[in-house]
């Protein structure tokens, strides 16, 4: 009897192992001919059917890989597999400098990334498995500004999904991000406001117009000197400002005095959003302290209304952070301790909307 049980278990395991996946994945490569950059990614296709609607996934800031791997989480892989199992093709690709890409990231800006997203759209239109009239984009964070940048200037983007996306200018988003990060960390509001108005507001916008290292360094030192007259050393430490600022100043200038940040700090997604009339879904977690849900979703809605968009939906996902994962505070320090790749409520909201607006 024991051997029969083992045999039956073995047959059951074999049958399960041979059960076909509802999707398959293909390694792909294609060119952004405008910038002479070859892009590499993964195309997820449903195993059954044809003429699939398709979603292009666009990552947030920094050189991300195609899965948008962040502290062990792989949200884009999870999205691709979820939608691929339900009849949607999904293309995710490595950023310049991320994953299998060897093209340098340092001199690329959001304008280049818009061209990369356009190249992804052009590539999908060459695939016989894809319905060329039903190709849309899902952008996360900065990617949520890239997708509107494409949709505003091309008529072949069928829909846009904005995942924790900016709905205000980037400098406004960063200013509120500073407030939310420090407020959530229980820093006194008056101290935070002093830092934001007397340091952030005067230093960071200067990177957009001033490239001279000596002048930028002098501005930072002058602002730190003023902060020292207003805040204690312990309060300054909260903002990462040490007793001796020489190394701090060098690091700030090195990190932010580049093409990407100069363009980023001046970029405003609102003009593109105001031109978007395609079906649009905007989702943000209420625990997002990087892209404030209330401020940015309101900004997106205002812009879409100005565009005359009649087919948009705004969704607040309770308790989710910037990565669309359940959080206690939403602070980035929690990210590594949270399990999973993405919360099911986000996936379900996206799928239900696609079924209604795209299918």
From TrEMBL:
Species the sequence originates in: Siphonobacter curvatus
A Pfam family this chain is assigned to: Hydrolase_4
Molecular function, one GO term: carboxylic ester hydrolase activity
Keywords annotated in UniProt: Hydrolase, Signal
Signal peptide annotation: 1-17
Protein's name in the database: Alpha/beta hydrolase
Superkingdom: Bacteria
Gene3D superfamilies referenced in this protein's UniProt entry, alphabetically: alpha/beta hydrolase (3.40.50.1820)
SUPFAM superfamilies: alpha/beta-Hydrolases
InterPro entries reported in the protein's UniProt record: AB_hydrolase_Est10 (IPR053145), AB_hydrolase_fold (IPR029058), Hydrolase_4 (IPR022742)
Domain Serine aminopeptidase S33 as annotated: residue spans: 76-168
Lineage: Bacteria, Pseudomonadati, Bacteroidota, Cytophagia, Cytophagales
């Amino acid at each position: 009897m024991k051997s029969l049980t083992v045999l039956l278990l073995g047959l059951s395991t074999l049958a399960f192992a041979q059960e076909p996946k509802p999707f398959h994945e293909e390694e792909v490569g294609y060119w952004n001919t405008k910038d002479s950059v070859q892009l590499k990614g993964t195309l997820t296709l449903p195993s059954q059917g044809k003429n699939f609607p398709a979603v292009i996934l666009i990552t947030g800031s920094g050189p991300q890989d195609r899965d948008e791997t962040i502290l062990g989480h792989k949200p884009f892989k999870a999205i691709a597999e979820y939608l691929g199992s339900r009849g949607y093709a999904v293309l995710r690709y490595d950023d310049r400098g991320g994953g299998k890409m060897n093209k340098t990231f340092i001199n690329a800006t959001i304008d280049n990334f818009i061209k990369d997203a356009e190249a992804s759209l052009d590539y999908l239109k060459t695939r016989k498995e894809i319905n060329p009239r039903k190709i849309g984009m899902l952008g996360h964070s900065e990617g949520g500004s890239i997708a509107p940048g494409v949709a505003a200037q091309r008529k072949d983007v069928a829909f846009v999904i904005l995942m924790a996306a900016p709905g205000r200018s980037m400098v406004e988003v960063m200013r509120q991000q500073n407030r939310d990060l420090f407020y959530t960390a229980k820093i006194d509001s008056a101290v935070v406001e002093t830092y934001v108005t007397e340091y952030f507001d005067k230093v960071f916008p200067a990177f957009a117009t001033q490239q001279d290292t000596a002048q930028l360094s002098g501005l930072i030192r002058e602002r730190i000197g003023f902060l020292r007259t207003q805040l204690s050393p312990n309060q300054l430490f909260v903002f990462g400002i040490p007793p001796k600022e020489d190394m701090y100043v060098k690091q700030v200038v090195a990190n932010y005095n580049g093409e990407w940040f100069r363009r980023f700090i001046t970029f405003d997604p609102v003009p593109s959003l105001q031109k978007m009339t395609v079906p649009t879904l905007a989702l943000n977690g209420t625990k997002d302290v990087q892209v404030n849900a209330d401020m940015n979703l309101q900004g997106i809605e205002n812009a879409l209304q100005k565009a005359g968009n009649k087919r948009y939906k705004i969704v607040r996902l309770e308790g989710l952070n910037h990565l669309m994962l359940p959080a206690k505070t939403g602070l980035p320090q929690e990210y590594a301790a949270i399990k999973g790749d993405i919360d099911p409520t986000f996936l379900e909201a996206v799928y239900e909307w696609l079924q209604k607006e795209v299918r």
